[in-house]
Amino acid sequence: MSKLPEMISKHQEAIRADWLKQMSGAVRRADLMSNEEIDSQSRELLTTIASGAKSGGITNLDGPAWTPAREALAAISASRAKQGFTTSETAIFVLSLKQPLFAMVRKELAASPDAVFDEIWKATLLLDNLALITADAFQTTREKFIARQQEELMELSTPVVKLWDGILALPIIGTLDSARTQVVMESLLQAVVQTNSRFAIIDITGVPTVDTLVAQHLLKTITAARLMGAECIISGVRPQIAQTIVHLGIDLANVITKAKLADAFALALQRTGKTVVAMDSGNAKKTLFKKEE
Amino acid sequence: MKSVKQETVLLTTSGDVVVARQKVRQWAMEMKFTLVDQTKLVTAASELARNALDHGKGGQMVIEHVENSIRNGLKLVFEDRGPGIPDIEAALRDGFTTAGGMGLGLGGSKRLVNDFQIESEPGKGTRITVVRWK
Questions:
Q1: Are A160 and A191 in contact (CB under 8 A)?
Q2: pLDDT tens for residues A275-289?
Q3: Does the beta carbon of B70 lie under 8 angstroms from any beta carbon of chain A?
Q4: Searching chain B, which residue's CA lies closest to the CA of residue A218?
Q5: How far is B116 from chain A (nearest CA, A)?
Q6: What gap in Å lies between CA A73 and CA A198, rounded to an integer?
Q7: Contact with chain B for residue A190, Cβ under 8 A
Q8: Closest residue of chain A to B40, computed from CA coordinates
Q9: Angle between helix A113-156 and helix A178-195 axes, rounded to 10 deg
Q10: Which is nearest to A289 in space by CA: A267, A266, A256, A255?
């Protein structure tokens, strides 16, 4: 039976004081974290470790007795992940508990070197496990963060805007992969129904590369919109993209394409029987569209 | 053909196709290709990288700055260890597809570059080498 749990409970405050003293500047990161915060974190963690060790043993940390300690570690690493600590800085916070713990074991069991070695080995295993839990939790927090950003980016990057009654615009920015196409298609078709639009302008100025996959996705979107009674116009075709499409052999003959969004808008207005006139035009009607730079 | 420098990009996920595109664009810009040539190279790289991934179950792209006695070029080598292409002539024909695409990737890439070479052995994999000269 290990004496470690008993020793940790008994000398908790002494270990903690030693631990805080040992913490080097790198672990403490005074720029990211106040002393009070680190003080309360270390107290909470050590208390949960002491109680976990007392009731749940120190070899297996999966049991319910260790749940508070696991949760405390997860909370600490989650807050550190957000504050901008690195993985190693977070793991070292836990690992730096080794020295004070070993010192305590040596002092307590000074009489029998065998027992000292035995307890130190157990303490090492315990702290390694705790550090692994910390690293895992840190990783999980980061991954969740990235996944959330990806979702946000997906939604942000596919806005459908109404330019005029019956005319929608869909500026696409970035890579058009299968997942993005699905979102684009869904939001476009939804908007076509909601706004009762007859024209949808898909602007590809922000798409860096138009290869066969992108072209195929565009054509599918256009066909779907056409089935719903909306005509699509592709705008933002740059000279280099036009040449590449020709060399690739992609057939866009059945699709109306324009170099600029303004041209596409003008065409859509014209097709819906509208025109834009200057206010002081008098008899001579003059369109307001100015060429973009 | 003399090699000036080279770099390898692994192709294992669809995210790597984006990395491959960005690398090719960056190299083409550094070598001062015109915007049209940059776009052609990037598009060809995108097609061939996706082929290596979808048909070849992943592989790698080696990007290389080469020069002969009179001019500079960007050479891209795509290698995979997939099932290989049984009929190269058919695969190059426009509209031929086995994966539900447009069937223009291979033939289209050939038209986007100057030199185009396919080596494929059924069961062993495929290696496609393309060069665009300045």
A1: yes
A2: 888 887 555 555 555
A3: no
A4: B102
A5: 14
A6: 57
A7: no
A8: A244
A9: 40
A10: A266
Q: What residues make up the domain containing A211?
A: 161-271
Same domain, A184 and A222: yes
B42 and chain A in contact, CB less than 8 A:
yes
Here the ipTM equals: 0.80
Whether residue A113 sits in one domain with residue A24 = yes
Tokens describing residue A138: 């840190």
Do A53 and A140 lie in one domain? The reply is yes
Does A51 share its domain with A117?
A: yes
Domain ranges of chain B: 2-133
Put simply, whether A86 touches B (Cβ < 8 Å) is no
Please, what CATH class does the domain formed by B2-133 belong to?
alpha beta
Residues A33 and A110 in one domain: yes
Q: Please give the average per-residue pLDDT across B42-51, as a whole number.
A: 94
C-beta of residue A204 within 8 angstroms of C-beta of residue A237? yes
Cα separation, A70 vs A90, in Å, equals 14
Query: Does A46 share its domain with A118?
Result: yes
Residue A285 in any domain: the answer is no
Residue listed under structure tokens 């009179």: B70
To the nearest whole angstrom, how far is the Cα of B122 from the nearest Cα of chain A?
Answer: 25
CA torsion A89-A149-B13-B16 (nearest 10°) is: -80
Query: In CATH, what number is assigned to the domain containing residue A195?
Result: 3.30.750.24
Q: What is the pLDDT of residues A172-191, one digit of tens each?
A: 888 777 777 888 888 899 99
CB atoms within 10 A of CB A270: 12
